[in-house]
Amino acid sequence: MVMSNLKSIDKEENWGIGTKCIQSGYRPGIGEARVLPIYQSTTYKYEDLDQVERLFSLQESGNKYSRTGNPTLNALEAKVAALEGGVGALTTASGQAAVFLAISTIVQAGDHIVASNAIYGGTYTLLDVRLRKLGIETTFVDPEAPIEELRKAFKPNTKIVYGETLGNPALGILDFDKFSALAKEFDVPFLVDNTLATPFLSKPIKHGADIVIHSGTKYMDGHAVALGGIIVDGGTYNWANGKFPDFVEPDEQYANTSYTGKFGNKAFITKARAQYLRDYGPVLSPINAFLINLGLESLHLRVPRHSDNALKLAKFLQNNEAVNWVNYPGLEDNKNHERVKKYFDYDGASGVLTFGLKGGRQAIKTFFASLKVAALVVHVGDARTSVLHPATSTHSQMSPEDRLKAGIPEDMIRVSVGIEDADDIIADFEQAIAKAVNVGETEQIAG
Ligand SMILES: *Cc1c(COP(=O)(O)O)cnc(C)c1O
Questions:
Q1: What is the pLDDT of residues 232-249, one digit of tens each?
Q2: For a substitution probing ligand 1, which of 117, 168, 218, 225 has the most ligand atoms within 8 Å of its CB?
Q3: Which terminus of the chain is less hemmed in, N or C, by CB atoms within 10 Å?
């Protein structure tokens, strides 16, 4: 009898990513619902006054009120923590709320952040405008600058170093070794937004991140139906190093509990829930937690398919004469391909690619109007192929010069390649590009 497989299957941490996607988080007992139930309840019944007292002083963990915990949300949190290899997680109403909550749990007025400039536009504005108004300064750095250059951005009051695994729309992959070395050198927590890569492609904690942030709205949901965010605590950072007194000193509102003292390597995620989710209130709804959890059940099938389809479309576009350039890190000749090999668990780079179409604005307009399978949508990660022209939408507030500096030329089209048949996606692009080329040529003759 061969027992070796039986032994390892007992432990959830030994499961493969597909088993975790489907079964981690919610583990029903006999006679209980096989599928994660939607606990559509704001309140919970208590045993007696003593239990209420224990719950409200953090001496006992449990659900008090759905703003700080709900069984459907808890199951999703446990699943994503398992997928990322963290010690705990916290869901929020949106990805944007997850970024804000993770940062506010760590910094206060007078503190400083070093952030990659190749990050999601919403996060850039949060750091550059909103947090500055609250007295929190951010220095943005070019993530490709040499380490000697990046060191200069750090100050005595720096409390966070921040980056994204796979940036959008520039599609650069973070140099984890360099950023985690800086985080260690300056002894600050390393926060990584892993939204586009998902834990299927890359697990930042393995590469030195302390905290991982997700917009669950993109590939986790995967069907464009629910907004949500998730913060995962790697349990790796030592908050008791003297820089973060709020983590160590007694919290008077919770019977003088010290987060590091009582919760050890879960100090961060406990503090985020007990203080910031409670007081700011951006809680995920149970139905959205259910939908994101349902999406996660096929993450390990969808992300490779998105990636394979994107690679096929990228190769087709590379060989099309009407295309100026193609950027997809999954392409062997892409400047980020080495990092796919180094930091990604799969030879692919999500469904997101960009390309430049010849022929000017009119050709681009005709291209968009001619698509039959893909649709013009401001979204990524959907099962359906989505396309966008950043210069007239997400980045239209910038001047053409600033856009170019941010790596967004006028001819750029962003594609979030879906999981339809690759042949159909390619045929759709082929016919739409052919129509665009005709218009572009007519325009040139007329001009
Ligand atoms: C979309 C996105 C966010 C914000 O998430 P929402 O769920 O839309 O609030 C944050 N980071 C990245 C990388 C994203 O793509």
A1: 999 999 999 999 999 999
A2: 218
A3: N
